[in-house]
Amino acid sequence: MKKIFITLLAAASLTACDATKKSTEKSVKSVITKSVKTSFFIDSVRVKKHLYTLASDDMQGRKSGTEGIEKAAQYIENEFKRIGLTTFEGLDSYRQTFNFTPRRSKEEITSANIIGVLEGNSKKEEFVIISAHYDHLGMKKSGDGDLIYNGANDDASGVTGVLALAEYFKKIGNERTIVFAAFTAEEMGLIGSTYFGKGIDAAKFVAGINLEMIGKTPSFGPHTAWLTGFERSNFGKIVQKNLEGSGYQLFPDPYKNFNLFFRSDNASLARLGVPSHTFSTTAIDVDKDYHQVSDEASTLNMSVITQTIQAVAKGTESIIDGRDTPTRVVLKEKK
Ligand SMILES: [Zn+2]
Asked: How far does the centroid of ligand 1 lie from the alpha carbon of residue 109, in Å?
């Protein structure tokens, strides 16, 4: 694969030698898009680095309002900068900072969503958001042994996916504008994503790709993931079509009783009509590490997480490049 890629790159550079730098870049990008596989740009080495950094004891469980989550915020900002993302409309940095008072608390805290943007080539005003929450539960106040809720699967794995996909699409190019968001305070009640949703024109958002717990082998077996709210738009069907022949399969969320569609940040945008869904691989009904201090990076399977990120890239390709637009979500929630 690598050899073919280099040959094609050279060919693209040669044929474009008289043209401007911009058109050279464009032709190189189109050659890459046609020839290269997601595996070339999404590799398990980088995935492992993101995951182990975000889930390290140093981050102290990434609870919103703590020093631990501040370290995670800085890591994500530095990665966005290294990758070359721009800032979201109305913000002068990657941080969307706000104050709130958590439920069952009297103390107001300050926290921030971390947001980066890759402007689209031809459909700049049509947005696709790729998100995950970077907060988790923090630390136990007392006790013996491990006190840190590392949240490796929940949701350092998802943030790892957001970072890897940002790097991927920066290299591949994108027709629609992609907004990459690491949300805060999901564990306190989807607070970061709800705040984000209040400040946007939801009509501009054509799709939401949220990643939650993508580091463990699902009950459907290897090379599979499941999607929440599958029947609520045709987003999942589009992904299935794009994955045909790839050896990776997407299934509807099998845990209907868990009401998962409304339990992660995708819901904050789905409530505004955006076809916004969560990808996951974890058998949440039997996962013994869910919301436990044992949710450590070492319990995750690097192949599962890497292959799932690759599948999300491949599966959403036609949405990112503007060929497919999923149907809007219509909610009939009981109040
Ligand atoms: Zn989560």
From this structure: 20
